[in-house]
Amino acid sequence: xxxxxxxxxxVALAGILGGNTAYSExxxxxxxxxxNEAARKADISETAExxxxxxxxxxxxxxxxxxxxxxxxxxxxxxxxxxxxxPRNVEGISFVQIExxxxxxxxxxxxxxxxxxxxxxGNTKTDSFVGTDxxxxxxxxLDGTVAGTNRDYEILRVEEKMGHETWVIEAIPATDEExxxxxxxxxxxxxxxxxxxxxxxxxxxxxxVLFKVMTADNFGFVxxxxxxxxxxxxxxxxxxxxxxxxxxxxxxxxxxxxxSSQMFTREYLSRG
Length: 272
Fold this sequence. Notes:
Number of domains: 1
Helix content: 10-25%
Distance between the termini: 34 Å
CATH superfamily: Lipoprotein localisation LolA/LolB/LppX
Number of helices: 4
Domain Uncharacterized protein TP-0789: 78-271
Order of helices and strands: HHEEEEEEEEHEEEEEH
Structural class: alpha+beta
Strand content: over 45%
Low-confidence stretches: 12-22
Oligomer: single chain
Number of strands: 13
CATH architecture: Clam
CATH class: Mainly Beta
Pfam family, one: LolA_like
CATH topology: outer membrane lipoprotein receptor (LolB), chain A
Strand order of the largest sheet: 6-5-4-3-2-1-13-12-11-10-9-8-7
């Protein structure tokens, strides 16, 4: 059993033995966010197909199909690859991201219409991800053992949200460097006390104005090999000012599939 599973199993046992009250009081905000990272970080490789639907204020929608590949086998790296499969106006757009433990993350976006690969720097990671309500920053693991050192956390309260008993945790950039590159002055995150995934997140700008909310639902197990991963199968991000939403549904998971390291390089983007 890997460290991630040991952490989560120990937490579950503490909840059973101590009861819900003790369970909710024995962790600091930072410890909860580390467990949130453990719940999200798979420690395996996986492939899935995403259905990404963009919905405007009037209910008009556009749907995109995206291939998503993740290599989470290295505890010091998290490699992800996304390629748009349809419709034609976005077909072939691809994105690779490598999240490092001890240095800045690498992000590259390939635009086939321009035959150009663009580096997404720290200063531009707040840009919209291919016209969606998600930013490039939203596809990073922002909290936890490594990245969480750039943020301060506080438990605001404990309450029910979307059918879950949750901790409500505020995350604020802890350094001037982080404040300069993040699009968020603060986030308020509702973390399930049962499985440690975020079920609801509020995003505030640097003027402390709430401008985006994200929900996670359709939780379920994904089975593959010796693994049994629990995760949301739908994410919804809404931009409040425009009423525009992006809904991501996850399908056809394959776990522990062999992956080539070349897939997560800048050079592969234009060939893959």
